[in-house]
Amino acid sequence: MTVLYQKGRLPEGKKIHPEIMAQIIHRFMEKVQDYTEGMLKQKWEALEEKQGRDSVLLAKFNDWVTYHRFNAITLDEIEKGDLDDWFRNLFSEETEKG
User: Fold this and answer.
1) d(CA 64, CA 57)
2) Residues 66-73, mean pLDDT to the nearest whole number
3) Could you tell me which of 79, 67, 60, 3 has the C-alpha nearest to residue 37?
4) Of 70, 86, 92, 97, which alpha carbon lies 20 to 30 A from 37's?
5) What is d(CA 78, CA 20) in angstroms, rounded to the nearest whole number?
6) Domains of the chain: which residue ranges?
7) Which of 78, 93, 92 is nearest to 22 (CA)?
8) Averaged over 34-61, what is the pLDDT?
């Protein structure tokens, strides 16, 4: 098993160009968004069965809607280049302390 973080060891990510990092993260976020859409469908169907009268299920559905919107914004920002500085400075000292 590979440990994500080992103190004193340079992260492998420092060797990855920011452009590649952005593409990797974007693809990961697309997969997360696909999963989120599946969860929304599942929660919606469950709500339909209960005719929308389950407050716990409704709250969970709303949480997934919020998560889906956040992911959509993130994907859009990566596509537009709004987060390029984040990728260029992902392993900077400032980011590690932040």
Assistant:
1) 11
2) 98
3) 67
4) 86
5) 12
6) 16-97
7) 78
8) 96
Exposed (0-12), middle (13-18) or buried (19+): which is 54, by Cβ within 10 Å?
A: middle
Task: Rounding to the nearest 10 degrees, give the CA dihedral for residues 17, 29, 98, 21.
Answer: 0
Longest alpha-carbon distance in the chain: 55
Rounded distance, CA 14 to CA 90, Å? 8
The vertex-18 CA angle with 29 and 12, nearest 5°, equals: 90
**26 is written with which tokens?**
């974007």
Measured CA to CA, the distance from residue 84 to residue 78 in angstroms comes to: 7
Q: What angle do CA 86, 89, 91 make, to 5 degrees?
A: 115
Higher pLDDT, residue 93 or 36 = 36
